Amino acid sequence: MTVEMLPHVNACLNATSAILLAAGYICIRRGKVTAHKTCMLAAFVASSAFLACYLIYHFQVGHVRFSGEGVVRLVYVPILATHVVLAVFVVPLALWTLYHAARNQFDRHRRIARWTLPIWLYVSVTGVVVYWMLYRVY
């Protein structure tokens, strides 16, 4: 695998994470605890793999400038900004949420997961959008 392939790999990992998060949510709403646990742990693995690939890519390539102009830039910048800011919070939130689940502290787990899930899902989906806008549109 070459470093040029990593943005595509990252988008796939983000999309996988988003799908697993949604599936995990559906599973827990239907009372399928084991399936929920499996989906959420797999989403964490996919997001962790994304983070590793993201860091490797940017250590190799550096900053990638968005070349779009006009209205599309006005759309891209807020998406990127919210994605980056919320991504910083996802790591500790996900770890804290998983910690409480592993300790069978399900009241605390649920309380934190109500915040973690939508933020993590947003970060995963906007990661794909940022990839698409940065590498596929321009």
What brief labels describe this structure?
mainly alpha, 85% helix, single chain, 138 residues, 4 helices
Topology:
Layout (H helix, E strand, L loop, with lengths): L5 H24 L3 H29 L9 H32 L3 H32 L1
Overall geometric form:
elongated
pLDDT < 50 stretches: none
Instruction: Estimate the mean pLDDT confidence.
Output: 95
**Could you describe the largest sheet, including whether it forms a barrel?**
none
Share of helical residues: over 70%
User: How many angstroms separate the termini?
Assistant: 23 Å
**SSE topology string:** HHHH
Structural class per helix/strand content? mainly alpha
**CA gyration radius, whole angstroms:** 16 Å
Query: How many beta-strand segments?
Result: 0
Number of helices: 4
Work out the strand percent: under 5%
Tell me the count of domains: 1
Could you explain the architecture of this structure?
The protein has 138 residues and is mainly alpha-helical. The protein has one domain. 85% of the residues lie in helices and 0% in strands. The chain has four helices and no strands. It has helices at residues 6-29, 33-61, 71-102, 106-137. Helix 1 runs antiparallel to helix 2, helix 1 runs antiparallel to helix 4 and helix 3 packs antiparallel against helix 4. The protein starts with 5 loop residues before the first helix and ends with a helix. The model has no long low-confidence stretch (mean pLDDT 95).
